[in-house]
Amino acid sequence: MRSFFDEILKYNWEEECGSIYAKRAVHVEEALGKEKRTLEDFKALVSPAASGFLEPMAKLSKKLTQKRFGKTIQLYLPLYLSNECTNFCVYCGFNHNNKINRLTLNEEMVLKEVEAIKDMGYEHLLLVTGEHSRKCGVDFLARMIELVKPWFSQISVEVAPMDQDEYERLLKSGLNTVYIYQETYHSANYGLYHPKGKKANFRYRLETPDRLGKAGVHRVGLGCLLGLEDWRTDSYFTALHLNYLERNYWKTKYSISFPRLRPHAGSFQPNFIVTDRDLAQLIFAYRIFDEEVEISLSTREKPSFRDNMLKLGVTSMSAGSKTEPGGYALNTRALEQFTVSDNRTAAEIEAKIKQFGYEAVWKDWDACLQE
Predict the structure, then answer these.
(1) Residue ranges per domain, the chain?
(2) How many helices, marked H, and strands, marked E, lie in the chain?
(3) How far apart are CA 303 and CA 50, in angstroms?
(4) Beta carbons of 258 and 283 less than 8 angstroms apart
(5) Partner of 313 for a Cys bridge, out of 17, 61, 194, 317, CB 3.0 to 4.6 A?
(6) Nearest 10 degrees: CA dihedral of 357, 367, 325, 283?
(7) How far apart are CA 131 and CA 201, in angstroms?
């Protein structure tokens, strides 16, 4: 059975990178003038040549977003169930080598966290774990989804990649969405960042969205870790992946996230700096390229940037996030995965959304109607 792995073999990283940097202003203008954009247009929109077109890109991104999604921002919250991990990712605070306080929440602890989260008003919950198949594998996740499902209208996960039958089991437990980030599509350098552990298997991780599509998962979230490799090229391969999935698993919806490297336990520093201006260009490029894709922005980003982007292309945001197990109701002192930059409460974010004339959406009605 063919997969995106077979598709990506047709492309060469260096050649695609050179193609992006060869784009000129005329290519950007052509992309902006079209009704429907191609992957070549996406190259132009993320190229250095497009940096002088941010204002018209922002206006078009805003127009296309309101056309498809209206003036709404969906709010979600991550609940970290465990920071146990068997991988050795050089950029992550959960790295197995790091001597940190490890914790996996039990059912009683999770319910205390749920109580605190419900007090904030959330209906959309994202369950997050480190990648530890024994301590937080499919049995653990199925039990936790069933435990929290009565409290929320939508359950998402950001966990270790699994087999198709395991995803099918989680769907029966109440799973709606899976976020899976390739981190980088640069296959030659992938091993430098993932030297050991299950995550070191580039192909297995790359084919995860294929397994999700075959399993019938309602929504799949994609993204690359901005800062590992050239962000323009990695984002092009992410767009290539998105395009492939939309053609092959058209019943599934898709979202794009933009994790930028943040301070963590360890000394790894980004190889490529991604500025706020760069990230804004990237968000506009994705919206102009794909009017249907949902675009999410987490509390990794500072308040002023998130406030600007909620009007210009973003469709969902987290607010009041804690990135350590037990962060909402328990004084666990477990290590957080990354440092939160936007520390505003959910109520403060909702007030800001309303101030801009937008509506904060706490419930995913589309998922409810489908069920």
Answers:
(1) 4-370
(2) 16, 9
(3) 25
(4) yes
(5) 61
(6) -50
(7) 13
* Beta-bridge partner residues of 154: 124
φ and ψ of 360, to 5 deg? -85, 120
Task: Give me the torsion for CA of 38, 41, 46, 47, rounded to 10°.
Answer: 140
Residue 19 near residue 11 (C-beta atoms within 8 A): no
Please, how many CA atoms are within 13 Å of residue 146, restricted to the half-sphere of its CB? 10
Name the residue type at position 99: K
The mean pLDDT values, 10 residues at a time, for the chain of 371 residues are 95 98 98 97 98 98 97 95 88 68 92 95 95 92 98 96 98 98 97 92 98 98 96 98 98 96 65 94 98 95 94 95 88 60 92 96 59 46
Which residues neighbour 216 within 8 Å (Cβ) at sequence distance 6 or greater? 168, 171, 251, 252
108-125 burial string, b = 16+ CB within 10 Å, else e? ebbeebbebbeebbbbbb
Residues in the chain: 371
What's the N-to-C CA distance of the chain in angstroms? 30
Can you name the residues that pair with 361 across neighbouring β-strands? 74
Q: Which CATH class is domain 4-370?
A: alpha beta
Residue with tokens 């999700």: 212
Q: Is 213 exposed, middle or buried (0-12, 13-18, 19+ CB in 10 A)?
A: buried
Pairing of strands 294-297, 154-158: unpaired
In 3D space, the residue among 140, 212, 201, 205 whose CA is nearest the CA of residue 176 turns out to be 212
